[in-house]
Amino acid sequence: MGEEEGRSDASTDSPYVWGLDPIDGTANFVHGVPLCGVSLALLQGDRTVIGVISLPYLDLHYSAVLGGGAFVNGKKLEASKTAELSKSIVAIGDYALGEDAADKNRQRIALTAELAAQVERVRMFGSAAHDLAWLAEGRVDGAVVMSNKTLDLAAGILIAREAGALVLDSSGDDHTMTSAHTIAAAPGIAEELLSLVQSVL
């Protein structure tokens, strides 16, 4: 299953499906911005069991196996210990394009305004792979994506969780492939960040 080519059912008997996003951060790539990468996930039903993100321009390569921890270039990852939203850096997903973009972006702009008032810094990297990998590494303390595209997020969600981050949907339940939104955070700020997101929905 690939973001660009759709699903290939070479073996329909297997409970496993590989999901590939060959360029996460396509607009960055096209414009020569080195914040883009490859995201690969092995899915078993509705859960990710292996996740790999490669950020080739930065020579950073992340991986996780369900229950086995998360790593970058062979080094074990641990999410941020930040416990105050006001001292956190939070990454947000891109604004919407195309049909209904204006309606979707009203919510995203409201979220940006709330975050700007309550966190230390807001960042928009233009790549969900970066958002979640850097959350796992502790470079950012939270990441909010106002959508849920499996191929963009599956590998990063596993890597973030295996590093100790919480990944929730907007109701506060564990994030799944059917969740409408993606709220990922260091445990110490997850509740505050979730409440902030809920306030703009």
Automatic annotation (TrEMBL):
GO terms for molecular function: inositol monophosphate 1-phosphatase activity; metal ion binding. Keywords: Hydrolase, Magnesium, Metal-binding. Its cofactor is Mg(2+). Mg(2+) binds at E3, D21, I23, D24, D152. The keyword Hydrolase applies. This is Myo-inositol-1(Or 4)-monophosphatase. The keyword Cell cycle does not apply. It comes from Lentzea albidocapillata subsp. violacea. InterPro entries: Inositol_monoP_metal-BS, Inositol_monophosphatase-like. GO terms for biological process: inositol metabolic process; signal transduction. It comes from the Bacteria. Gene3D superfamilies: 3.40.190.80, Fructose-1,6-Bisphosphatase, subunit A, domain 1.
